[in-house]
Amino acid sequence: xxxxxxxxxxxxxxxxxxxxxxxxxxxxxxxxxxxxxxxxxxxxxxxxxxxxxxxxxxxxxxxxxxxxxxxxxxxxxxxxxxxxxxxxxxxxxxxxxxxxxxxxxxxxx
Length: 109
What we know:
Pfam families: RNA_pol_Rpb6
GO molecular function: DNA binding; DNA-directed RNA polymerase activity
Family: Belongs to the RNA polymerase subunit omega family.
Keywords: DNA-directed RNA polymerase, Transcription
Enzyme class: transferase
Shape: elongated
Helix content: 55-70%
Structural class: mainly alpha
């Protein structure tokens, strides 16, 4: 994943809208990518924490596992998916297409 500096960055709306021609379309592309990243991170975290899952629900047998805490802290310190998605979009690292263009080209055939 990309390393980013600040979690709050002022963005130029003209630069944000340039790839799609519309601010709202750009935000939609960024949000879809952020959901993909979030889902991916959640799956990774769940698979890593599944190793520590216990089959016994007894409170006496539940204990803190330092590795589990470190893994959780690592994922908490990672940049937020929305910030990573915005950086990817602004750096032209995302590939997207407009559905309207596909419908228009289909109608022309």
